[in-house]
Amino acid sequence: MRRSWTLCSGPSATWRATQKRVRRLASRAFRPYIEGPGLRRPVALEAWTADYPVGVLDDDDLGLHPMTRSSILTRMRLGACALATALLAACVNPADQPTEATTADPIEPFNRTVFAVNSFADDLIGKPVANLYRRAVPDPGRESVSNALANLRQPWTATNSVLQGEFGRAGTAAARFALNSTIGFFGFFDVARDIGLRHRDEDFGQTLGAWSASGDPYLVLPLFGPSSPRDAIGFVVDGALDPITVLAQGGIGWGRGNALTTTRTALSYVSGRERTLEVLAELERGQDYYAAMRSAFRQRRAAEIRNEEPGGDTVPRRFRFGADMD
């Protein structure tokens, strides 16, 4: 015998009894959640009535207090909103959110390409020359060369210290240059350090940073490596206005190099690369050499602009020829 169900004409008595049994079971199941002060009896969720024709289950059948019906609907709406919020939050991919690195390096694909070319050139020329220099020149000789090169930067350090308002640092740099250029035999011996005058380097990029010029975005220059627009401008100004360079060239300007400036540039590169062999090798062993180099460069430049010492302490802005004034 086939049974036909006519939903439009209303359910049979058996179906209504089944519905009420379902309602009673739901009432018991949800008792801890919907029972509370002012309720006449435990009630079922409104959702249980959604699939039935209008008039099949009324408030009397469900045993709903007039306030209970609106209370349940309100709770259901709040729960649905909370669930939707949670689902939307779960759908957000953290990898798609902007980070400090992506904000500071918006042209990363270009920078990585230049970085790869620079690394190839460094492997081909830089590392072999630096290792040859280390093997050929003993430690005292390499230290003397480094001292002489650092001494040639002191007049420009003094100039930038004045531009930054660091008159104490300017005096220290001038005193170091005078002592090391004379008693220290053209800077090959750092006698100023022995009497407490600490060496510090200042460039025009740091001067711009001291006057709140931003160091973003990160930029990798061909052959010159990590930089930024601010530091690139500083590099150009350093090369054009450095007092020693101006004196050696007989005037201000690029492309007027002579034997002194060319030798100074070459020795600066070789000496600097030799001193960073271990540091860069450690960075290169990491998972992302490019990201490690970017992070190291940005941290170092920020520390230099804040006048932090290698130990992490910030140098006071006022001091007397290297002796800090508290």
Describe the secondary structure blueprint for this structure.
Blueprint: H1 13-29, H2 31-34, H3 59-62, H4 66-91, H5 100-104, H6 108-136, H7 139-152, H8 154-163, H9 167-182, H10 191-194, H11 204-210, E1 219-221, E2 225-227, H12 229-241, H13 243-249, H14 259-275, H15 277-284, H16 289-305, E3 319-320, E4 323-324
Antiparallel strand pairs: 1-2, 3-4
Helix pairs in contact: 6-14, 7-14, 8-9, 11-12
Q: Structural class of the helix and strand makeup? A: mainly alpha
What distance separates the N and C termini? 104 Å
Shape: elongated
Instruction: Please trace the helix and strand order, writing H or E for each element.
Output: HHHHHHHHHHHEEHHHHHEE
With strands numbered from the N-terminus, the spatial order across the biggest sheet is 1-2
Rounded mean pLDDT is 77
Helix content: 55-70%
Q: What share of residues are in beta strands?
A: under 5%
Radius of gyration from the CA trace? 38 Å
- Quickly count the helices: 16
Mind summarizing the main beta sheet? 2 strands, antiparallel
Low-pLDDT residue spans? 1-10, 32-67, 311-326
Strand tally is: 4
User: What's the domain count?
Assistant: 2
Description:
This protein is mainly alpha-helical. The chain has 2 domains: 13-89; 100-324, no CATH class. Helix content is 61%, strand content 3%. The chain has 16 helices and 4 strands. A hairpin with a 2-residue loop joins strand 3 and strand 4 (323-324). Helix 8 (154-163) runs antiparallel to helix 9. The chain is elongated. Mean pLDDT is 77; it is low at 1-10, 32-67 and 311-326.
Features:
single chain; 326 residues; mainly alpha; two-stranded antiparallel sheet; two-stranded antiparallel ribbon; 61% helix; elongated; disordered N terminus; disordered C terminus
